[in-house]
Amino acid sequence: MAVVEVRQLEKSFKGKEAVKGLDFELQRGKVIALLGPNGAGKTTTLRMLSGLLKPTKGTIRFSETNENEDIRNHIGFLPQYPSFHSWMTGKEFLIYVGQLAHLSKDEAQERANELLEKVGIANAANQRIGKYSGGMKQRLGIAQAMIHQPQLLMLDEPVSSLDPIGRREVLQLMEELKEQTTILFSTHILGDAEEICDDLLLMHNGKILESGPIKELQIKHQTSLLEIIIEENPETYIDRLKAFESIEDCKLEKGKLLVAVNDMDKARTQILQAALQEKWPLIKFELRRTTLEEMFMKVVSG
Ligand SMILES: Nc1ncnc2c1ncn2[C@@H]1O[C@H](COP(=O)(O)OP(=O)(O)O)[C@@H](O)[C@H]1O
Ligand SMILES: [Mg+2]
């Protein structure tokens, strides 16, 4: 079941289209990564979903809100560059945020303690935020976003600015929070997405290029290729190769024959037998795999 449905969502800044017609749903209880290079439109999308930015066009529908209800009651948001009052302690900050979210002083205090515990900074509750490490600040930021028990937690590049230890801590925390809320987080690093997300939205130039369960996308983009180099007239072998039923496609790229294969064992045997019998001037015969990583690199490098 979807927590939120996005239809034809667009945002332009002074005529520049940052987000160009997005359609997607977020499934309840999942961790969803919004993956894309810098400038893809991730922050703009998250800010529209969180109600901070008005879409130019399109609709965002939360399943459990009424017509006139403020969607901010149901979502928590950690911006890409959060700012904290560094003179406050972590606990003071959470109580302050809790009261802003209309909790009573007692409720806010109770919720603050609970969250400090949950995000693993209870021992620094009474320390000034100015003294927190990057990872601790991100964890406090996540606690802040969880103060009113939102159905959807949105985190904009929550681990991008962290060192490897901080990164690990925050990813682990997100994994734990998954039990309580749906999480949508943005990142420009495929590895972060692969590590914890269930579903992936791949964004580039304001559009979603791919979406779905990450496991399925990994399989979809894992195709097997053979790279073959033939000394003379490689183009004359294309039709010969395509005739094998184990071969899906074949094309010539920079003098190399790239062969997409549906049954690697069979293709290998068939090609090598033909090469032997027909005395092909074979120079190279190599197995290559393409992965989600290669697809992403292609997107990133344009
Ligand atoms: N307030 C703004 N005014 C003008 N252009 C903006 C504004 N915010 C974002 N953009 C532009 O929109 C595009 C997408 O930006 P952004 O959503 O921040 O991407 P990402 O978070 O994926 O790096 C970029 O080209 C950016 O320069
Ligand atoms: Mg951004």
Automatic annotation (TrEMBL):
Molecular function terms in GO for this entry? Answer: ATP binding; ATP hydrolysis activity
Keyword Ubl conjugation appears in the UniProt entry: no
Task: List the InterPro entries.
Answer: AAA+_ATPase (IPR003593), ABC_transporter-like_ATP-bd (IPR003439), ABC_transporter-like_CS (IPR017871), DrrA1/2-like_C (IPR025302), P-loop_NTPase (IPR027417)
A Pfam match is ABC_tran
Q: In what residue span(s) does the ABC transporter domain sit?
A: 4-230
Give the record's keywords alphabetically: ATP-binding, Nucleotide-binding, Transport
Question: What SUPFAM superfamilies does the record tag this protein with?
Answer: P-loop containing nucleoside triphosphate hydrolases
Family (UniProt): Belongs to the ABC transporter superfamily.
Its protein name is: ABC-2 type transport system ATP-binding protein
